[in-house]
Amino acid sequence: MSEKKTLSVAVLGLGRYGKFTAKALFENGVDLLIADKSEETINQLSDIAEIAVACDLSDPDAVEKLGLGNMDAVIVCMGSSMDPSIMCIMVAKEQGVHKVIAKAGSERMGKVLKKIGADEIVYPEKTMAQLTVTKLLGR
What are phi and psi of 46, to 5 degrees? Predict the structure, then answer.
């Protein structure tokens, strides 16, 4: 009898989107690595993660030490911060992560992150606006 492997995901950047994402993944049984610059935020969420690290996500050495290559996927959640997003995507790809999803705060940022190596770009505000309109109009 074979056991199903638990998915391991890193959530980098724990603003509103990152927190909701990390909590939803935890509730669905995913093994989490979380990282954010705020030690207070890390302490608040450390009980949902296998690994919780406070670090500067724009520092390539700090990001490399996270061991992202051991993750099945990495979600970069810093939609308004281009430099840390770029650094996290580059390191994740260099370490062999197959699925990197990145939040973008604008279409231009999304294009840059895609060129850097993100496999998928998400625009949470745009997506939720479309969902709200769809629900309102009953479509």
Answer: -60, -25
Instruction: Supply the pTM of this predicted model.
Output: 0.92
Q: What's the order of all strands across the beta sheet hosting 120-122?
A: 51-54, 31-36, 8-12, 73-76, 99-103, 120-122
CA distance 70 to 55: 18
Beta strands at 73-76 and 99-103: parallel, antiparallel or unpaired: parallel
Q: What is the pLDDT of residues 6-20, one digit of tens each?
A: 899 999 999 999 999
Q: How far apart are CA 11 and CA 101, in angstroms?
A: 10
pLDDT averaged over the chain?
A: 94
CA distance 12 to 74: 8
